[in-house]
Specification:
The structure is a homodimer of 230-residue chains. With 230 residues, chain A is mainly α. Chain A is built from ten helices and five strands, in the order E-H-E-H-H-E-E-H-H-H-H-H-H-H-E. Chain A has a three-stranded antiparallel beta sheet with strand order 2-4-3. The interface between A and B is large, with 43 and 43 residues. The structure holds a DNA duplex (30 and 30 nucleotides). Chains A, B: Residues 7-74 form the HTH gntR-type domain.
Chain lengths: 230, 230
DNA sequence: AAAAGTAATTATGAATTCAATATTAACAGG
DNA sequence: CCTGTTAATATTGAATTCATAATTACTTTT
């Protein structure tokens, strides 16, 4: 049975603001003006402020008491920490997937994998990454653990805006493809320990972190304004 | 530098409602009346509704469009999934802790450990569990990964209300203490792989899950009302 | 009496209004 | 010209009000 999709104004607004952040239309550290966004979206402050609270809980923005909100500044450490976590979660998803996945689902992933290999041989980076993403998503779904999926998606969202893999060297790419070959073999053997290990070590994450090392503006500014929800 | 503590009305209300849920004053599946809680806390609907949205994001309650909110019903599967995740996160925390922890911090944990052993030998279950909790918290803190800590704490909060370990058998207890002995040894050797493995396999989680199997009312009712934030 | 349909009531969703806090601007003194 | 103080402005925090959807109570009909 398909679940009912909740479409509240606040959720709509939260998603739209999330998009603005992802696409860089709201910059890291930028102060978020309630009035401005209200006019942009054509809603009153009530649903907008609800959205801000939700986004703060999801880790995309920070709330400064009596001083509004601002987009979370992604320091290198924060991104690194998030990727460490995502690697652990991917590892778990692999272990669980081995226990639950059906032959049919494995076949579907094998198809995605072959398609991904095609794009790899044609050096189509963009298409490659899309297939790559679909494979990881399929494994996550096969884990049958909804809490895990929710957490992973939340973390993924937090770092989405710094996810562009320009500096992909051929060596890295080759290794990533080898990893994937091993992954799908482990999956077909349903070797949960092995798949978990591969996914935890999979350099996709580490590559991105390495790539990002030079990208992120790590100026660590006005930290005296930092606030924690308590 | 100590961080500024945010104390907004909505956050206060959210915490108070969280306490009500934890202590069973709001039952699983129970409909949450806005008016009632407004009167109870002496606040208007605005901050209360903001709190509800945050609690929904944190996974403690569900929002039913145009039909208010209700406390999330903890099915056995949901608890099991959450514990699987927490075990993975504890494993990661152990690995990271080995890399960052100072000799002084290890000594502090050793002290906690010894104190825990005392309570074990005196069969003081309550005091034992408090020390146990402190040890795991110390390792988590030593991981130096704030995102990890945030996620772990959120998961912990979700299952807090079903955390009472009555049916602790002596055999389980003995094993748990052995695990802890191995844990602290691995920590002192800074063997991250080993500590990670121990924590992932640590039966504390599994014990609780096993204990809960008989406790949780898994009636799986009116699921047609189920809603997902989208 | 049971079921279905309609009116009344209640609760939620969202906009508006009021109050408190922070930011900016103006000004005086050094 | 710079610094510190105070007044004006703007923004956020919270309560209230209005609108809309859901629930309940009450008819009406079979």
């Amino acid at each position: 049975m398909t679940k009912i999709l909740q479409r509240n104004l606040y959720r709509e607004v939260a998603d739209r603001i999330g998009d603005l952040i992802e696409h860089g239309e709201l910059s890291p550290g930028e102060r978020i003006s309630e009035k401005q966004l209200c006019e942009k979206f054509g809603v009153s402050r009530t649903p907008l402020r609800e959205a801000l609270k939700v986004l703060a809980t999801e880790g995309l923005i920070e709330l400064l008491p009596n001083r509004g909100a601002r987009v979370v500044r992604l320091t290198f450490k924060k991104v690194k920490d998030t990727y460490d976590l995502m690697a652990a979660l991917e590892g778990l998803s692999g272990e669980l997937a081995c226990k639950h996945i059906t032959d049919k689902e494995i076949a579907a992933i094998r198809t995605l994998h072959n398609s991904m290999l095609d794009h790899y041989h044609q050096h189509d980076l963009k298409a490659y990454f899309e297939l790559n993403r679909q494979i990881h998503e399929s494994i996550l779904a096969a884990s049958q653990n909804e809490v895990l999926q929710e957490m992973y998606n939340n973390l993924s969202q937090r770092v989405k805006r710094v996810r562009y893999s320009k500096k992909m060297t051929q060596a890295f790419w080759d290794q990533a493809v080898k990893d994937h070959e091993n992954m799908i073999n482990a999956l077909e053997k349903r070797d949960s320990q092995l798949l978990g290990q591969i996914l935890r070590d999979h350099l996709c994450n580490k590559l991105e972190v390495a790539t990002l090392a030079g990208v992120i503006e790590d100026d660590a500014p006005d930290e005296e304004h930092s606030v924690v929800n308590a």
